[in-house]
Amino acid sequence: MALNKYDEIARAAIHLFNRKGYHATSVQDIADEVKLQKGSLYHYITSKEELLLQIVSRSINGFSHELEGIVNLPESATERLKKAIHHHFGIVAGDVEMTTVLLRDAFLLSQDQHKIIVVAMDRYLDHWVRILQEGMKSGEFREGDPRLAALSILGACNWVYRWYNPNGAKSAKEIADYFCELHLRGIVVGE
Amino acid sequence: MALNKYDEIARAAIHLFNRKGYHATSVQDIADEVKLQKGSLYHYITSKEELLLQIVSRSINGFSHELEGIVNLPESATERLKKAIHHHFGIVAGDVEMTTVLLRDAFLLSQDQHKIIVVAMDRYLDHWVRILQEGMKSGEFREGDPRLAALSILGACNWVYRWYNPNGAKSAKEIADYFCELHLRGIVVGE
């Protein structure tokens, strides 16, 4: 499927931010990458910063949207946590470049714009916390601090963008399975 | 104890990189912060990038140096892993600003300089992997992939710099204790 022009521009920017860094990437570079005159590019974007904000907003909302569905499934907390880990890995492994921009570059936004992303990231964390809370409340998970437990799992899963290699010996699915094993043993009663 | 001038400059830079960001911090800003003329500052540093390289090199070498001692202790892998987690938390919580520069800003270095830091970070990871390997080999830890298990624990511990709040309800020691519990249950046989 052909990307629409805006998506093509966003994809080019993601690629350039990964390769050259956000600061070293000029609007001209992005225009060159999508074969537009700089003036024409401005029909689609207002500024490089606005484009970064759009990219990271879409990215974190993509992470959250599906997780929200998982949290609300009529399944055990254990099952939902496994699905959450696989969901997160699926996005990271499926689009390391976009995840890198989200997790590495979002702080380069102005304070006000960064705040928007921090709030959206907190909302994503909240979904994880809810699974942990429900599992602890029902006795399925050991008692503990649901927020810290969520931060431990999510931290491990977030860090993946720094080391994941699509050509590595293990697939994203295999790594996610192993992470489920490690983290669920840490919290599930009787595991 | 008074810092020597170079340490004072490094500390000022760490503070400014945290507050304003690396790119938005000028050499003039650093000079102002330590009350030197820009010309005099250049007696101590060659460039902002060289200063960033020095800061992150020192930081990652600080992480590694003590961990190397822990890895070589004549203790069980479980004990050494607990000590490693506490060691890592101690540095992060003791100096969130420096850890932020290390884990957030190192990639802003030029490719060659960043490579130096990536190699040093890999060496730090290797120490963690060695504890995992030894525990798995002796049967103290469940069989698994020592590198992935190390990346899971280290990822969770690294992510701490993004959310740790020195004024939060739990101390760094309490959080580290809980992380030990979560991660050791995940790998230790019979836990």
Please specify the SSE layout and strand pairing.
Two copies of one chain form a homodimer.
Chain A: H1 5-20, H2 27-33, H3 38-41, H4 48-71, H5 77-94, H6 96-105, H7 111-138, H8 146-163, H9 172-187
What do you see in this structure?
Two copies of one chain form a homodimer. Chain A is mainly α and 191 residues long. Helices cover 74% and strands 0% of the residues of chain A. In chain A, helix 1 packs across helix 2. Chain A is elongated. The A-B interface holds A 21, 23, 104, 107-108, 144-145, 148-149, 151-160, 162-163, 170, 175, 178-179, 181-183, 185-187 and B 21, 23, 104, 107-108, 144-145, 148-149, 151-160, 162-163, 170, 175, 178-179, 181-183, 185-187.
CATH topology of the largest domain in chain A: Tetracycline Repressor, domain 2
Residue fraction in strands of chain A:
under 5%
- The total count of helices of chain A amounts to 9
Counting copies of identical and different chains, the oligomeric state is: homodimer
Summarize the structure.
With 191 residues, chain A is mostly helical. Chain A contains 9 helices and no strands.
List keywords for this structure.
elongated; 2 domains; mainly alpha; homodimer; Tetracycline Repressor, domain 2; Arc Repressor Mutant, subunit A; 9 helices; 74% helix; 191 residues
